[in-house]
Design brief:
The structure holds 2 protein chains of 2 kinds. By secondary structure, chain A is of the alpha+beta class. Helices cover about 30% and strands about 30% of the residues of chain A. Chain A has 4 domains: about 5-70, Phenylalanyl-tRNA Synthetase, Chain B, domain 1 (2-Layer Sandwich), CATH 3.30.56.10; about 75-275, 3-Layer(bba) Sandwich (Phenylalanyl-tRNA Synthetase, Chain B, domain 3), CATH 3.50.40; about 285-350, Phenylalanyl-tRNA Synthetase, Chain B, domain 1 (2-Layer Sandwich); about 370-555, 2-Layer Sandwich (BirA Bifunctional Protein, domain 2), CATH 3.30.930. In chain A, the strands form 6 sheets. In chain A, strands 4, 5, 6, 7, 10, 11, 12, 13, 14 and 15 form a 10-stranded mixed sheet that branches. Chain A has a 7-stranded mixed sheet with strand order 19-23-24-28-27-26-25, with helices on both faces. A 3-stranded antiparallel sheet of chain A has the order 1-3-2. By secondary structure, chain B is an alpha+beta fold. Chain B has 3 domains: about 5-65 and about 200-215, Arc Repressor Mutant, subunit A; about 70-195, Arc Repressor Mutant, subunit A (Orthogonal Bundle); about 260-515, Bira Bifunctional Protein, Domain 2 (BirA Bifunctional Protein, domain 2, 2-Layer Sandwich). Chain B contains 20 helices and 16 strands. In chain B, a hairpin with a 2-residue loop joins strand 3 (about 125-130) and strand 4 (about 130-135). The longest helix of chain B is centred in the N-terminal third of the chain and has 15 residues, at about 140-150. Chain B is rod-shaped. The chains are: A alpha+beta, B alpha+beta.
Chain lengths: ~550, ~525
């Protein structure tokens, strides 16, 4: 979920109204935004990951105003035609590097500090979240007054040199990726390519090296600039175009005159070889009235539907006896299915106007069989005087293997752990119980503890390479803890659950030799019982004998 | 004072109080009380100490006394009926006797005879004439033969264990006793001196009142503390009274077997959902990206699918499957919507990605499996599922959490029944009175609702969310009726209910904490 910083005054200026904070919080709910105050700024969390047009002050301000007033300002530039010379020419080599580029210019914009801050914030938010760390979208903003058209989007040798932002002299593209701080961050995006993308103007002046860094000459925007060029490059054409549509609408909201630019491709794209930007992303959507009513659960009259859609920014809303047809705003590309428009109708009408109708279908409640088994065993062990535990599934690989002297344990290993404490999923409950002993040396003995819970184990015979089992582990830590003592509780479970078992002696590194057994029932091993090996006790800093059993609860399944 | 709790009186205290029954106003010494209470000195001493500390008994006088008792040597003299000195003098008056003769008399040791001879000679009472002992001073001899034998040793004839006040002896004997008992005299002393504090006691006003109560209730101090199996078997319980307990004394709390408080909370939620007609779902902790995300129509480029938002599994690294026909149908829905009426996400769906394994990030994966497995229609399902996300760990975020979530499906499902379901949860599961519904976003539902409930102190809090599954999700899994997907933030509800402020405490490994948590 993206979170953005918003200056309240700036938002209110764009929204055309001053909002007391509580009123603002409620007003933004329909935009699925949550507001928190942080110093002079508002931190706004946007829940809708498909609405990047809302991830900026301009988008929120525009929506507040439109929802309140029931109408939105039109953006005629989406249908204007571009000047012949306003073009970007694309190098055929880029088709397999970073194939898409799109841009536009704007004039008469007053870039004050707020606007500049917002431009940069929006650039980062869209490139990071929508563009997945600049991989599918990267955005550049330039002072357009020195740019000479046509702009060229080229694939060039890594030895090509220019001076990037935050540098004082020319560097080769190769050097930027290894030595420049921004270059280092995004170097992985160009890994494996023989040529790198470069944007230059007609004179050969470098604008930027997408998706990495702008040049220090053309690629610098300052407060006071009035003439900008904005571009996006990327790997998904519609996302690149969508990004430009959002930026164009945002700058227009701040008073800019938008000048379209046409990209000329030497290869085919899903939208042809010449694509003008900004482009109206929206597509006309139709929902049948039965669809609307069935989804809403109540009949809405066409007038209500029209008003709701208009409040939500839709254009060309028409209703008939059968259906409603409308086009969302030009900067929205998130409607996949009529249900998306139907949700906007319901939000536009207001959630609070709908009745909460209790479900009436008759259904039968039914517990999962393993949960019934778990419950029976849990109640028995509590009756036996054991404290129940509820421990994390994730743990350290060291705890799950070496510290119980079992390096061959079938533990599931996490590829991207936050820390070694969460390096694997538990394959056994015993390390968890030992960690309780480790932290509870001051608690009055005897300790009788247990957990019934899920573990995950590698299993090459399973289609998913692993399986999830429900185990019960019960542990006694006391001066007198021994095998027969803990076995007496297993006896109780076996007796009341109605299963027979026997112990098959086993030498296992976790247990004292000669004092461990496999729990076998109907010829199948379900777990183990034994006295914990003193070296394991040392590993966990436990100073009293510990005995334990751990069995799969399936042993108790009589069905 | 009238409400003094008689159950706090020990049996010995009752007996001591009862020693005053005949004359509650009089004073009694230790010796008097021993007699009147029938207690031994040691028992009495303890009982008196307790009664004094309870202000039921007061010490009225206290004086130190020196008393005389026989030593072992003295008791021997009493048996013999004389001392070596008196016997020596008696034999000497009867006729000629030598020290050798005397030492043949084994009533006393040879040394005793020797030292008696030495001390009498030194006092000038006898002298020696060759081996013969000659009496020189008959008058002073009488002190040894009469005064000591009758006046001192003889005083103990009735009771050899008695203690006698030193005041009762004549001045001459007192000097002798003091000299010999303190070790200044020669030889072994027949007597011992001891200093004792002699107290006298009287009942206080409270004490008299208590005594009256004791007598009224017929407490004797003979009440039995334990009912034994023997008493029951032989019927002896009929003859005895039982000591009344002091119920104000509390024993220590026992370490009981106990359910984990959070697990017990989840049990309660589970029972509630079962009672509302929901069927329980279970599924694997390690999921494929297919069931965890693809099947939920979350595009493979979705932000929640990147490396920072899920724990991916490196060993094992990949699964077989997923199963057809769902695999192809889901892929089509992603690419171009297939025949779901959607334009789809329009990107190259990667089937390899679907096989990657991760730790389940959302319980909704179970709902997807249930839909694909041919659910009941109409049907209501729930799961309490452990889920995993790589959040920064703090008081409100753990590496894992529990999700209570599920689905409700059937022909009558729509936005209004979705609101109704949420209201039902708020009332029945969270026991909240006042709720509101706010637009929300989930990648797999449209429309989506956040459920907020009014908490008496915390204000509006988020309880959970729900939405109608998108057709792009249900159709490829073979379901053609509307489906509500719902989820409740059960960890947070449990924290509020259990009064826990740090989510990590829900999974505590501290046994003391668990034993003490209410």
């Amino acid at each position: 979920m993206p979170t953005i910083s918003v200056t309240k005054q700036d938002l209110e200026r764009l929204a055309g109204k001053t909002y007391p904070l509580p009123e603002l919080e409620v007003a933004l709910e329909f935009a699925k935004a949550e507001v928190k105050v942080e110093g002079d700024e508002l931190r706004v969390q946007l829940k809708d990951t498909n609405r990047p047009d809302l991830w900026c002050t301009e988008g929120l301000g525009r929506t507040l105003k439109g929802y309140r007033e029931g109408e939105y300002a039109p953006y005629p530039f989406f249908s204007a035609s571009a000047d012949e010379d306003h073009r970007i020419e694309v190098d055929p080599e880029l088709e397999h590097v970073r194939p898409f580029v799109s841009g536009f210019a704007c004039r008469n914009v007053q870039i004050d500090d707020n606007a500049l801050k917002q431009l940069i914030e929006t650039q980062e938010r869209l490139a990071e979240n929508y563009g997945r760390g600049r991989s599918s979208i990267a955005i550049g903003i330039y002072d357009a007054s020195d740019i000479v058209y046509p702009i060229r989007y080229e694939a060039v040798s890594p030895d090509t040199r220019f001076t990037p932002l935050q540098a004082t002299s020319e560097m080769s593209l190769r050097q930027i990726l290894t030595d420049h701080p921004t270059g280092q961050t995004y170097a992985h995006l160009l890994e494996g390519f023989a040529a790198y993308p470069l944007l230059r103007d007609a004179r050969g002046e470098v604008l930027s090296m997408p998706p990495v860094v702008n040049s220090a000459s053309l690629g610098r925007v300052e407060a006071g600039d009035t003439h900008l060029f904005v571009e996006a490059t990327g790997t998904v054409l519609d996302h690149v175009l969508h990004t430009m549509a959002i930026f164009a609408a945002n700058l227009a909201d701040r008073g800019a005159t938008i000048e379209p630019v046409v990209t000329h491709y030497p290869y085919d794209t899903p939208r042809g070889r010449q694509i003008q930007s900004p482009v109206d992303m929206a597509i006309e959507t139709t929902a049948t009235l039965p669809q609307v009513h069935d989804t809403a659960g109540t009949a809405l009259d066409p007038k209500q539907i029209e008003t709701a859609l208009t409040k939500m920014g839709y254009r060309d809303v028409t209703t008939s006896d059968e259906s409603v047809t409308a086009t969302p705003p030009p900067y929205r590309d998130d409607l996949l299915h009529p249900v998306d428009m139907i949700e906007d109708i319901i939000i536009g009408v207001g959630y609070e106007t709908f009745d909460a109708v209790m479900p009436r279908d008759f259904t039968i409640g039914k517990a999962a069989p393993q949960e019934d088994l778990s419950d029976r065993i849990r109640h028995l062990l509590v009756g036996c005087g054991f404290q129940e535990l509820f421990l994390p599934v994730l743990g350290s690989l060291d705890n799950q293997t070496r510290r119980i002297r079992n390096d061959d344990a079938p533990a599931i290993v996490i590829a991207n752990p936050m820390s070694e404490h969460y390096g694997c999923a538990r394959w056994s409950l015993i390390p968890g119980l030992l960690s309780v002993e480790e932290t509870s040396r001051r608690a009055i003995y005897p300790h009788r503890i247990f957990e019934v819970g899920e573990v995950a184990r590698k299993d090459p015979d399973h289609a998913y390479g692993s399986r999830t089992d429900v185990l019960v582990a019960a542990m006694e830590a006391s001066e007198d803890a021994n095998l027969s003592g803990i076995q007496s509780y297993l006896e109780a479970i076996a007796y009341y659950s109605g299963f027979e078992y026997e112990l098959r002696p086993i030498d296992h590194p976790t247990y004292l030799p000669g004092r461990a057994g496999e729990v076998v029932s109907n010829g199948q091993a379900y777990g183990m019982i034994g006295e914990i090996h003193p070296e394991v006790l040392e590993n966990w800093g436990i100073a009293v004998p510990v005995s334990v059993f751990e069995v799969d609860i399936a042993i108790a399944d009589r069905a | 004072m009238a409400d003094f709790d008689l159950t706090s009186l020990h049996a010995l205290e009752i007996k001591t109080l009862r020693g005053f029954t005949q004359a509650p106003e009089t004073t009694q010494s230790d010796a008097d009380l021993e007699a009147s209470s029938g207690l031994e000195a040691g028992q009495l001493r303890r009982a008196v100490e307790w009664l004094v500390s309870k202000s039921l008994l007061a010490v009225t006088s206290e004086e130190a006394r020196i008393s005389v008792s026989l030593s072992d040597q003295g008791k021997r003299f009493l048996e013999v009926g004389g001392t070596p000195e008196s016997e020596l003098l008696r034999r000497a008056t009867e006729g000629s006797v030598t020290l050798g003769d005397l030492q043949g008399d084994d009533r006393f040791d040879r040394g005793d005879w020797g030292s008696a001879f030495g001390s009498l000679k030194k006092e000038g009472i006898i002298d020696s004439d060759g081996p013969h002992i000659v009496l020189k001073d008959a008058e002073r001899a009488a002190f040894h033969t009469e005064t000591i034998v009758d006046g001192l040793i003889g005083r103990f004839r009735e009771d050899p264990e008695a203690t006698v006040s030193i005041e009762t002896f004549s001045g001459e004997l007192r000097a002798h006793i003091e000299e010999s008992a303190t070790g200044r005299g020669k030889g072994k002393s027949p007597v011992r001196l001891s200093e004792q504090t002699v107290r006298e006691y009287a009942l206080t006003d409270d004490g008299r009142e208590t005594l009256t109560a004791v007598l009224d209730q017929n407490l004797t101090g003979e009440e039995v503390s334990r009912l034994t199996p023997e008493m029951i078997q032989v019927g002896a319980w009929k003859q005895v009274g039982f000591r009344r307990y002091d119920l104000s004394i509390r024993p220590p709390r026992i370490q009981t077997g106990r359910h984990h408080p959070y697990r017990a909370y989840l049990d309660q939620v589970r029972r509630k959902l079962l009672s509302l007609g929901f069927e329980e779902m279970k599924g694997p902790l390690v999921e494929t990206e297919f069931w965890n995300m693809d099947a939920l129509f979350m595009p493979q480029f979705h932000a929640a699918r990147n490396i920072h938002d899920a724990y991916f599994v490196s060993d094992p690294s990949e699964s077989q499957g997923p199963e057809e026909p769902h695999f192809s149908a889901v892929g089509r829905a992603h690419r171009d919507g297939g025949d779901t009426g959607s334009r789809g996400w329009r990107y190259p769906f990667d089937p390899e990605r679907s096989r990657r394994l991760l730790m389940r990030t959302q319980g909704t994966a179970l709902s997807a499996r249930t839909l694909a497995g041919g659910p009941n229609i109409p049907g209501k399902y729930f799961a309490i599922a452990r889920c995993f996300r790589p959040d920064e760990i703090d008081a409100t975020h753990g590496a894992e959490f529990n999700q209570v979530e599920g689905i409700v499906l059937g022909g009558s499902i729509n936005f209004q029944s979705l609101l109704g379901l949420l209201k039902l949860f708020a009332l029945e599961v969270a026991e909240a009175e006042e709720v509101r519904y706010v637009p929300d976003y989930f990648p797999f539902t449209e429309p989506s609702v956040e459920l907020q409930a009014k908490h008496p102190t915390l204000g509006w809090i988020e309880l959970g969310g729900a939405g109608l599954f998108r057709p792009e999700l249900t159709a490829p899994l073979g379901v053609d009726v509307p489906v509500i997907a719902w989820g409740l933030g059960v960890d947070r509800m449990a924290m509020v209910s259990l009064g826990v402020s740090d989510i990590r405490d829900l999974f505590s490994t501290d046994l003391d904490y668990l034993r003490n948590q209410k």
